[in-house]
Amino acid sequence: MAFWAGSESDVDVLAAAAAEHGWTPLFADRYPHAGGPSHYAAYLENGDGFEVELVAQPRTGGGDR
């Protein structure tokens, strides 16, 4: 399941706090661009096997990341 999670810094804060709540990162070696160079997200999994994607709102202004 994917969720809008705010800004890129909001995604970073949530991803950093995830371990305290039973979540582990997926694709940690490719964080935060595991979904591609213009997709900023944290992919997480909990002990029950549920997976979530916390997605940053796209930047505005037309610039590349």
Automatic annotation (TrEMBL):
This is VOC domain-containing protein. It comes from the Bacteria. Gene3D superfamilies: 2,3-Dihydroxybiphenyl 1,2-Dioxygenase, domain 1. InterPro entries: Glyas_Bleomycin-R_OHBP_Dase. The lineage of its organism: Bacteria, Bacillati, Actinomycetota, Actinomycetes, Micrococcales.
